[in-house]
Write the structure tokens for this entry.
Amino acid sequence: MSNISRPGERAWHKHYETGVSTNFQPEVTTWTEMMSRAFDSYADTVLIEYYGKSYTFAEMRRLAGQVASALKAKGVGKGDRVALHLPNCPWHPIFFFGVIAAGAAVTHISPLDADREIAHKLKDSGAKVAVTLTTPELASHFKPLLASGETPLLVQCPDPVSAMGRDCPVFDGAMGVQEFLAGHENATYDPVPVTPQDMALLQYTGGTTGVPKAAVLTHANLTAAVQIYSENTKNDSSAEPGKSSLVYSPLFHIMGLTVGLLKRVHEGGTIHLRLRYDAAQAVKEIEEKRIASFGGVPTTWIAILQLPDIEKRDLSSLEYVGSGGAPLPVEVYNRIKKLTGLKLLGGWGMTETSPAGTAVPRDMPDEKLGTIGVPLPGIDLKIVDVEDPTKDLGPNMTGEMVVKGPNVTAEYWGKPKETADSFSNGWFLTGDIGYMDEDGYFYLVDRKKDMILSGGFNVYPLMIENAVHQHPDVSEAIAIGVPDDYRGESAKVFVQLNNGAKPFALEELQEFLKDKLGRHEIPRHLEFRDELPHTPVGKPDRKALRRELETVT
């Protein structure tokens, strides 16, 4: 029995709000065209406000034109990549829009990445230019790369907020952004023509091997995702032009980029962009700036609920609140609903879907808490047999979720085999295990891959294991995700020591791993075992450890 009824009809369509299309087909266009329209339509509206400094749409257009002109002068053009190693700050949208206007594609390098991940992504993407801050916590990653000649032209930008009063000079061998833009101050905004099929973003994700691979997201993919999200919220007052959103979600992450930045640019919104999350400051901003929409991961809301005076604070300006990236505790959902009168909405998506996938409808009954919602307009989703993806499964039958839509990537960068293995009859195999109920709501129950979701970030056990194995006293290591009240999940590593080696403290291991893993990947738990479990073919058996822990709890 299939969970798909007649062509065009889906069980979830009845949950769409009035006026939202059940047969939505986004305009096939480019981000170049979409952002140019927004620059023209909302010229005098503030697009970005960052700790008191504001940039209108017109100002952002002017700065994007300068960046594009400077990039062209350095030989960057259509088909090239520019790597952005930037946290939330105005330089991110300035360079993102500038790279697109130059006809090139952006590739994001997470500020959380360890040195070896940065080196891999720079080499794999073939980026001609890399952009980072002068702030030491970010810039220091590039010193060894500059010394070894493994980095392209490095442009460094000042950010007083992250610098925190420190003098942060440009490295020898790098170029300061003012020098980079010198001579282009009067450049006109004249974007290079591109097609919807051209690459706009090379966004790294992970795989079953834990080795980062990049999804090729075209202009058509990104603009489709933006339009899909906007269609879904067309009745939402918080999505109107000029309405404000408070954005802590990292713009280098696909969700923060598409929903936090690109969607609001398309809609003419004002983004209050912030570098790092602070619950007390966030609530103060909501009160003072009358923020209309605010979202994050469950830990975002947990921290807010822990504020001693939260029951007395004025959150009445909020028109939309969201949570994603990890399972939402019931008590958090209920308390936020009581505080704001709003349901914490969320959904599911992935890098490969740009990341549009599902969203929780506003009319979701409370008893369905835990659902990832229903497919967004223009997206098709179904459950198939894990072993035979050509076999559709019916309601309440558990299998692999597969997705289809104009927002879905067509390929992984330079990986034809992994690309071929990720599709079945035109459907993208998500690797997520779940089911659809009889009302059309989808639920996740497991992950085909061993990925850990920690604080909204993807963490790959194999990368942790490879790093732990470098410790001289470690014979073998297995990493799994364990429940974490704050992060949703955190990594626990099981270690088998070399003969004669003595156990060490978790803090010692964390210090050892500091330059080998990103902060979000560092294990939070450590357990020593005389022997670790293995599969019949000799591979480390993570499932056995997970089953063991589930039995204990």
